[in-house]
What we know:
- The chain is mainly alpha-helical.
- The chain is 74% helix and 0% strand.
Amino acid sequence: MRWLFGILLVLLVVLQYRLWIAEGSLAEQQRLKRQVDDFTRENSALRDRNAVLEREVLELQTGNDGVEQRAREQLNLVRDGETFYQMEDEDK
Length: 92
């Protein structure tokens, strides 16, 4: 009877080791779930950014209006005869 108790005790220790420490343990599962959540959030942000970039590419491909708007906003370009005024906030 004593040897049976010893075998059961060893089996219990082995099972507890696998449950808490070994590969596939509960701690590893929690770490992997957090990692999946982080990757899901990152993918969502990248998907949104790609949608914005895709819209910008389509705007630039469809006509000159998008190109002209970008030139005016980002490069401060003006047409012949136009005057460029730049307003700055006094608070800054």
